[in-house]
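Hi V.,

Quick status before I head out on leave. The structure for the redesign project is tokenized and pasted below; the design run finished overnight.
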């Protein structure tokens, strides 16, 4: 089912879904610019093929970049403040640290030899330009390729305009049959009407049609779809009428963007009224969406929910919607320019607010379902699912935070997704939003209490134990005021977590004990009871009460097993490894640490992976696998930098880490240690995990 997410070195290029036509010169030109310049911006009107050309180029040059080609799509992002975050997230960067985003982004890119593609910058030019500048200054081997309807206005930027495709007649020596526009039309026509062939009979009207459409790929694709119902001549005739009306009596050529609008408008008119309405409504989604979401969000008395499936199919057939399927199911996406058109239409219909509200309701309810299901047997499924909906969740959050009277819903949505922020490596994003939502909701309430304990947990995950303690204390005070006993207990748990990080073991033990004892009906197994038990066992191990620690952890693992809960079990396995190191059961400890790592690979759990690698390094030192230990120590040093405060700033973890380093260095000798450490420092988290797991493709132990 799920593939491990994040930390892949090869990049994250989306696949190309349809055939690519022509553009040989443009691609060669772009390659040359890219070899000469560190920033190339591809410009051009909507629908001309900027994104597609860049994607083709990216696939072609992929092997030139040892650290991958990465693709960040900003098309549906509205908030300039989230540009950095969206790019970091596309790179799969650990999002734990509480430092400035650009700092850790630059640090992550560091010496990496990679290409970053930022698609669709025009609505956020300023923010993109600032970030690109910062990144290029900090990362000497980085190259950036942007697409935008306008340039980023940076002095060293190479701007490469994307012209429309060649149209018949541009090159008088060229055969009509090999012309790019004609070929694109023929390729898409073949997709609509399988027996379509280009021949002497239809080549002249096809060529004329492509000329009329100015060689704009999107316009050509939309026209080709009409072949299901009309002949080429009919399409041409209808378009010609339309264009002459638009251009006035003179019949002069239209500006290109007007040609495209006319082509889109024409497609729009040829849709059934219900399809048109759905097209407009679907513009509320960010990126792609699933059918269920469309059914819920877009249906009402005028568009019954049982009709939505057929209407979506109709829009796919008309090339308005793209369809994508992967292991997690089928998803749909409106092509950018068409989403904009739909949005304008939705605005004219006066339904923007209504759709945004439905969209928020859907994601709110999905988030609540995911929270309920989180501690059950389908945890990985829910992680993958909510990860796919990340862009939509962001849009829903933005809507709730911007709309008067809805900011409390933002609190609920955010708090439900606590596991995304804490367990799946998105602490920074969670914190950003939680702080905004809490500020927008200053009045004491149950919703606020939940958001406060979530915030505390998130801050602990970032190693900000003082902040975590403060948030949990506020939660506790407010929870008493509103009589929310559940939140009081969770506040106590979060205070305990923060105290553990601060190394105040007595306080941690008392608070975690309270959280466990008062969780009488096991109502909050996760993140209340089970993580509290794991954390208490860490306190006990540190205090030398190893038997008690182990038996607590065994119980916890048993509960996890019964419930199919994986994430806490990986946490418990990690803690058990620590307990077993203390009792000298090194082989068992290694098994536990590896089991923890194996599970964490399914989630984007940066923090948990780092902690498990810390333990693996200690085990390797104890079992004389010194080269492996030194490699892991190198990888840890490098990867903590972008993930957060090293060893979460916890004194006991730092002490263990330093002792492990000293030991390893002393026993290996300075030179050998340095070599292995530096080798390890080049590993990303996946590779370091492979070393710890002794995967066959991990570097050999020499
Ligand atoms: N050379 C090509 N071969 C095949 N299809 C193409 C080509 N160029 C563009 N297309 C198709 O045309 C449509 C519009 O292209 P694309 O989305 O790249 O335009 P864009 O310039 O990025 O538009 P926007 O400004 O809206 O982002 C897409 O469906 C794309 O796949
Ligand atoms: Mg584009």
């Amino acid at each position: 089912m799920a593939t491990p997410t994040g930390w892949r070195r090869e990049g994250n290029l989306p696949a190309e879904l349809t055939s690519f036509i022509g553009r040989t010169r443009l691609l060669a030109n772009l390659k040359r610019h890219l070899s000469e310049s560190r920033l190339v911006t591809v410009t051009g009107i909507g629908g001309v093929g900027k994104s597609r050309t860049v994607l083709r180029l990216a696939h072609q040059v992929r092997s030139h970049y040892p650290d991958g080609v990465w693709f960040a799509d900003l098309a549906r992002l509205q908030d300039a403040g989230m540009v950095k975050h969206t790019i970091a997230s596309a790179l799969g960067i650990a999002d734990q640290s509480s430092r400035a985003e650009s700092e850790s982004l630059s640090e992550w890119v560091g010496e990496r030899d990679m290409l970053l593609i930022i698609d669709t910058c025009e609505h956020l030019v300023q923010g993109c330009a600032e970030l690109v500048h910062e990144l290029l200054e900090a990362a000497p081997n980085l190259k950036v390729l942007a697409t935008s309807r306008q340039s980023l206005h940076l002095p060293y930027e190479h701007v490469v305009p994307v012209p429309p495709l060649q149209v018949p007649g541009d090159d008088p020596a060229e055969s009509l049959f090999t012309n790019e526009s004609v070929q694109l039309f023929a390729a898409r026509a073949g997709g609509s009407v399988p027996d379509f062939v280009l021949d002497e009979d239809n080549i002249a009207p096809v060529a004329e049609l492509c000329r009329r459409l100015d060689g704009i790929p999107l316009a050509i694709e939309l026209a080709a779809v009409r072949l299901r119902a009309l002949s080429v001549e009919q399409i041409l005739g209808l378009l010609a009428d339309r264009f002459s009306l638009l251009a006035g009596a003179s019949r002069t050529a239209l500006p290109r963007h007007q040609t495209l609008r006319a082509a889109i408008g024409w497609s729009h008119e040829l849709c059934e009224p219900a399809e048109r309405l759905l097209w407009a409504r679907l513009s509320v989604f960010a990126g792609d969406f699933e059918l269920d979401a469309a059914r819920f969000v877009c249906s009402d008395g005028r568009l019954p929910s049982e009709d939505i499936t057929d209407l979506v199919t109709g829009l796919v057939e008309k090339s308005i919607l793209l369809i994508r399927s992967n292991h997690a199911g089928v998803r749909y996406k409106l092509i950018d320019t068409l989403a904009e058109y739909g949005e304008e239409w939705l605005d004219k219909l006066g339904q923007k607010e209504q759709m945004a509200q439905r969209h928020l309701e859907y994601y709110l309810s999905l988030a609540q379902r995911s929270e309920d299901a989180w501690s059950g047997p389908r945890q990985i499924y829910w992680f993958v699912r909510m990860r796919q909906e990340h862009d939509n969740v962001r849009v829903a959050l933005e809507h709730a935070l911007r709309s008067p009277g809805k900011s409390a819903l933002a609190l609920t949505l955010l708090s439900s997704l606590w596991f995304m922020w804490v367990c799946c490596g998105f602490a920074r994003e969670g914190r950003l939003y939680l702080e905004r939502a809490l500020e927008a909701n200053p009045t004491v309430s149950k919703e606020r209490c939940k958001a406060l304990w979530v915030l505390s947990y998130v801050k602990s995950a970032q190693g900000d134990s003082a902040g975590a303690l403060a948030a949990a204390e506020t939660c506790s005070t407010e929870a008493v005021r509103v009589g929310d006993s559940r939140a009081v207990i969770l506040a106590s748990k979060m205070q305990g977590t923060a105290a553990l990080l601060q190394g105040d073991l007595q306080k941690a033990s008392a608070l975690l004990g309270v959280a466990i004892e008062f969780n009488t009906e096991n109502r909050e197994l996760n993140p209340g009871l089970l993580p509290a038990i794991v954390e208490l066992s860490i306190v006990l191990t540190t205090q030398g009460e190893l038997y008690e620690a182990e038996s607590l952890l065994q119980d916890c693992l048993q509960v996890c097993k019964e419930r199919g809960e994986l994430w806490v079990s990986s946490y418990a396995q990690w803690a058990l490894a620590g307990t077993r190191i203390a009792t000298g059961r090194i082989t068992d400890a290694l098994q536990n640490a590896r089991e923890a790592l194996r599970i964490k690979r399914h989630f984007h759990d940066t923090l948990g992976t780092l902690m498990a690698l810390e333990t693996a390094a200690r085990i390797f030192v104890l079992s004389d696998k010194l080269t492996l230990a030194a490699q892991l120590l190198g990888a840890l040093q490098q990867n903590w930098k972008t993930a957060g405060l090293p060893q979460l700033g916890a004194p006991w973890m730092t002490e263990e880490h330093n002792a492990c380093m000293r030991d390893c260095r002393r026993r290996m000798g300075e030179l050998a240690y340095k070599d292995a450490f530096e080798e390890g420092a080049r590993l990303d988290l996946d590779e370091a995990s492979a070393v710890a797991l002794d995967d066959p493709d991990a570097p050999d132990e020499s």
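Above is the designed sequence. Residues 18, 20-23, 44, 46-52, 120, 147, 149, 184, 217-218, 221, 335-337 surround adenosine-5'-triphosphate (ligand 1) (CB under 6 Å).

G. will cover questions while I'm gone.

Best,
W.
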